[in-house]
């Protein structure tokens, strides 16, 4: 890497050639700065990826930078160069002066954009996807937070942190069997263990992004992450509602419906989608997009305002659960992608939310059929193609559709200056049997970046400390969306620690190349931005609670271990106070008991599946090895049924559960530490802000004097 680029301009891989200015964005693993490239006096964006915070291994990061450097399309952000500065990877790229669509919505359009702007933004994004797919890439993180805008209305798709090469074989292709992306935007097949996915996953995310731009937030964004996963798999796809979304055209609704079809083979390609009437009539972005920024403060001030709002929210909310809620919300607002492992919180949130609770206007089957049928009529002249299928269970008719470099302006104009698009209610009450299989530590490759990556000897040599921007907080906070968002982009308190704890789950049987052959699916490989690992799955219902440090709601705000089972069970909060005796004394009515019994059955079945899957892939030899290495307690002997498969399985099960409980304890401790650090950081930031503003006041007074 280092110096590279198709651009005629050459950018050096020397950090001292860059002067970092204001912070203009931040993600789960990176902070983005406006910067000046001193030799050319050129404004650029520098994305500083904290390698310690990064959930990806060095190979993934290198791939991101490499991929970005080879990109040559007006609607795709590419890297001018990248290099390592101490524990950071700096990626130099064009500065997009208006930031991301997500930030813009948070600041000024909490209910989404108007259709003309949406059409232009989506069309440009679709061009980017068409290009990437043609080049063999899957973007895997299409969302409003990754659609960047320039002052003149140019739209570019950013962030290849999770892109995968579709045409690759071997390790890279294996990456397609990993969970990467942001849950609200993730296609059902991406969430389905072992099913694999292809570029059509981007089309789903594109459809979700369309809804996000239309409403100001993604569907399901108010739900806890685990619920989002389940709802995406279980429910009918979200979409624009004919009645509720009256302001949007029929062709927009049709276009979204075409993208949000659960069967990926029935989604159109980007190329095909581009021919949809919705895009044919869209205005050029310089007409419809440019006007969105009029009268807005400069990007860095908007970002600062969002940050301050986040900080204020956190400071105000003292209750642990409230803090957690605020963090989730702020993460959503920031468009951060990562997992929120605070499962107690997730469970609590999930328990309060019914699928159809606050979705009075769910999109019914008839409506969806109508939408797609009408769409089909347009495309196929009214003839239903062979691949139209009415899926009774899914209650959904699906149709196959055949398929700046930003120069710093000398004037620096800017420098000085309903959401219930939910689905039809859950079609069946049957819980998703998400079968988690595997647990085998994925080999994480690391080592030096590719030749050409410039290593800076030390951070002290860089001009690493960005200047603090002047804070001009606009009275815009009242425009912020107020409803808390618990999901969407999720929060991983500490990627590094989470990563170090987790052996990403890997298939015991390899990965599946064929995207359509779901019958052979056999893995959950969860990696990259999402590391759902053994400790995230609370399989330890049967473990004595004393072995796992659990916090009461008065304790640390952060508690660990996702529990598919527990989460489901505790979605009914009325029962825990009941003792078994009370259940059996006949005072409970059947109607009260039944839902809980059903839940118990579901939970048990899911847990059994999970445990059996884990056990199946855990080779006896590994357990013995681990025991000999002191990693696991010694294998207990089974005297009665020596050598029987059942006995071995139960021994292994116990060992596994003990191991999981240990991991959970460690996770709890680490998260507590992280919470404490976060609080310290916020306090320091507030103090710093105070000092900065005092100094500025002092300067002004001196200046006047
Ligand atoms: N070239 C750019 N010009 C201006 N702003 C940018 C640029 N690149 C990124 N940003 C801003 O920084 C934010 C974070 O960047 P980015 O998405 O690359 O980080 P990330 O850590 O990969 O985020 P995530 O993982 O949450 O998607 C973006 O949402 C956008 O607002």
TrEMBL record:
Biased composition annotated in UniProt, kind: Polar residues: 417-448
Domain of life the protein comes from: Eukaryota
Which residues does the record give as ATP binding sites? 47
Keywords, A to Z, come to: ATP-binding, Coiled coil, Kinase, Nucleotide-binding, Transferase
Q: Name one GO molecular function term.
A: protein kinase activity
**SUPFAM superfamilies recorded for this chain?**
Protein kinase-like (PK-like) (SSF56112)
Q: Name one Pfam family in it.
A: Pkinase
Which portions of the sequence form the region Disordered?
407-465
Q: Has the keyword Transferase been applied to this entry?
A: yes
- The Protein kinase domain is annotated at 18-279
The residues forming a coiled coil are 660-687
Q: Where is the composition biased (Basic and acidic residues)?
A: 407-416
Classification via InterPro entries: Kinase-like_dom_sf, Prot_kinase_dom, Protein_kinase_ATP_BS, STRAD_A/B-like
Q: Name the family the entry cites.
A: Belongs to the protein kinase superfamily. STE Ser/Thr protein kinase family. STE20 subfamily.
UniProt-recorded name of the protein: Pkinase domain-containing protein
């Amino acid at each position: 890497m280092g110096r590279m680029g198709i651009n005629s301009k050459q950018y050096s891989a020397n950090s001292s050639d860059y002067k970092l200015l204001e912070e203009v964005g931040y993600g789960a693993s990176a902070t983005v700065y406006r910067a000046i490239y001193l030799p050319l006096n050129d404004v650029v964006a520098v994305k500083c990826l904290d390698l310690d915070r990064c959930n990806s291994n060095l190979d993934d990061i290198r791939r991101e930078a490499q991929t970005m450097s080879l990109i040559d399309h007006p609607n795709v952000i590419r890297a001018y160069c990248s290099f390592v500065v101490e524990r950071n990877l700096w990626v130099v790229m064009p500065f997009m002066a208006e930031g991301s669509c997500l930030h813009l919505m948070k600041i000024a359009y909490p209910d989404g954009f108007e259709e003309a702007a949406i059409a232009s933004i989506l069309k440009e994004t679709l061009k980017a996807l068409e290009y990437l797919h043609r080049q063999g890439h899957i973007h895997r993180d299409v969302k409003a937070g990754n659609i960047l805008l320039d002052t003149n209305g140019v739209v570019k798709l950013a962030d290849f942190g999770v892109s995968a090469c579709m045409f690759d074989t071997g390790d890279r292709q294996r990456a397609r069997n990993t969970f990467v992306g942001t849950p609200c935007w993730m296609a059902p097949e991406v969430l389905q263990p072992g099913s694999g996915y292809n570029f059509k996953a981007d089309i789903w995310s594109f459809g979700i992004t369309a809804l996000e731009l239309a409403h100001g937030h993604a569907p399901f964004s108010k739900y806890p992450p685990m619920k989002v996963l389940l709802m995406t798999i279980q429910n009918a796809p979200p979409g624009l509602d004919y009645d509720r979304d009256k302001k949007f055209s029929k062709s927009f609704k049709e276009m979204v419906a075409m993208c949000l079809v659960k069967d990926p083979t029935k989604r159109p390609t980007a190329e095909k989608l581009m021919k949809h009437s919705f895009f044919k009539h869209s205005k050029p972005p310089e007409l419809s997009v440019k006007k969105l920024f009029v009268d807005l403060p400069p990007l860095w001030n908007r970002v600062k305002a969002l940050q301050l709002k986040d900080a204020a929210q956190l400071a105000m909310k003292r209750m642990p659960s409230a803090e957690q809620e605020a963090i989730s919300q702020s993460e959503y607002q920031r468009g951060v992608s990562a997992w929120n492992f605070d499962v107690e919180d997730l469970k609590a949130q999930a328990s309060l939310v019914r699928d159809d609770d606050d979705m009075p206007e769910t999109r019914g089957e008839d409506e969806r059929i109508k939408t797609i049928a009408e769409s089909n009529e347009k495309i196929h002249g009214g003839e239903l193609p062979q691949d139209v299928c009415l899926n009774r269970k899914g209650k959904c008719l699906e149709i196959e559709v055949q398929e700046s470099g930003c120069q710093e302006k000398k004037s620096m104009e800017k420098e000085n200056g309903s959401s219930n698009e939910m689905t039809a209610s859950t079609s069946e009450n049957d819980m998703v049997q998400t079968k988690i299989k595997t647990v085998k530590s994925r080999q994480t490759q690391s080592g030096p970046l590719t030749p050409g990556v410039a290593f800076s000897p030390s951070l002290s040599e860089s001009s690493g400390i960005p200047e603090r921007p002047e804070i001009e907080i606009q009275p815009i906070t009242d425009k912020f969306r107020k409803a808390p968002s618990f999901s969407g982009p999720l929060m991983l308190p500490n990627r590094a620690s989470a990563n170090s704890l987790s052996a990403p789950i890997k298939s015991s049987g390899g990965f599946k190349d064929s995207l359509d052959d779901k019958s052979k699916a056999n893995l959950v490989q969860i990696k990259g931005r999402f590391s759902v690992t053994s400790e995230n799955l609370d399989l330890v219902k049967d473990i004595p609670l004393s072995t796992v440090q659990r916090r009461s709601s008065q304790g640390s705000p952060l508690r660990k271990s996702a529990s598919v089972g527990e989460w489901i069970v505790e979605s009914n909060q009325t029962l825990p106070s009941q003792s078994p005796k009370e259940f059996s004394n006949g005072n409970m009515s059947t109607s009260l008991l039944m839902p809980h019994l059903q839940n118990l059955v579901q939970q048990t079945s899911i847990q059994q599946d999970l445990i059996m899957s884990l056990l199946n892939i855990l080779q006896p030899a590994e357990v013995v090895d681990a025991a000999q290495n002191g990693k696991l307690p010694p294998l207990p002997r089974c005297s009665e049924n020596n050598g029987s498969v059942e006995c071995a399985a139960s021994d292994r099960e116990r060992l596994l559960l003990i191991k999981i409980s240990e991991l959970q304890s460690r996770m709890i401790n680490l998260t507590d530490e992280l919470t404490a650090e976060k609080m310290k950081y916020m306090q320091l930031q507030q103090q710093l802000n105070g000092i900065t503003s005092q100094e500025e006041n002092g300067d002004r007074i001196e200046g006047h004097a």
